[in-house]
Amino acid sequence: MQAGIVTTDEELGQIIALSHKNLRKNVSEEEQTISGFITWMYTLELLRQMNAQHPHIIVKDNDKVIGYALVALKEASAFHPDLKAMILHLGTMTYNHKKLDEYKYYVMGQICIDHDYRGKGVFSMLYEEHKRLFRNVYDFVITEISPANKRSIAAHNKIGFKTIHTYRDVLDEWTVVLWDWN
Predict the structure, then answer these.
(1) How far is CA 15 from the centre of its chain?
(2) Which CATH number fits the domain 2-180, given the four candidates 3.40.50.720, 3.40.630.30, 3.40.50.1820, 3.40.50.620?
(3) pLDDT score for 14
(4) What is the mean pLDDT of each run of 10 residues along the chain (182 residues)?
(5) For helices 9-22 and 44-53, what crossing angle results, to 10°?
(6) For residues 137, 140, 143 and 148, what is the CA-based torsion angle, rounded to 10 degrees?
(7) Which of 59, 76, 127, 143 fits a disulfide with 108 by CB distance 3.0 to 4.6 angstroms?
(8) Distance between CA atoms of 164 and 176, rounded to whole angstroms?
(9) What is the rounded distance in angstroms from the CA atom of residue 76 to the CA atom of residue 70?
């Protein structure tokens, strides 16, 4: 298994296929409880636009994408309405007595691991690659997780993410977590 950045449309296509298999509406309630789920579906064009701004991180086993962690810069909100709503909401929050907008950060657009590779360190590999590549550029990475996705919350806590806020919108309730690299 090797971590790296997305360089081809084929890899983006594999991300879409892996996303589709793990989308909340495509996963049984039992599987959601055991293995987690993802909430947003991305189109190839949207992934291309985001990847052009900043490459996404993937882990591959030979030529197969087995995990991904999407980089969503604040600027991606210009062409991603759900991200725009999230960024606007993040702008109202504070961390260590400062507005989030006073920091340099990016959003984890989504993270997902192939079912057959869960529990094998892929999640850690993805985030360690993020930290290695981005800690000298950004203060932290931030994301939102549905509280119903207990596996994801536990995995993020294990990496070092801390909860800074919770709220509800029209889709779900959200736990906002942040991994501070300073």
Answers:
(1) 12
(2) 3.40.630.30
(3) 93
(4) 92 90 72 66 85 92 93 81 83 92 89 89 92 92 87 90 86 87 85
(5) 120
(6) 150
(7) 143
(8) 6
(9) 12
The domain limits of the chain are 2-180
Sign of CA dihedral 116, 135, 71, 180: positive
Integer angstrom CA distances of residue 57 from 6, 60, 88, 109, 116: 6, 10, 25, 11, 19
- Rounded CA gap, 45 and 50, in Å? 9
pTM of the model: 0.85
> Tokens standing for 27?
């996963």
Give the pLDDT confidence score for residue 86 in this predicted structure.
Answer: 82
* Cα angle 112-113-117, degrees, rounded to a multiple of 5: 175
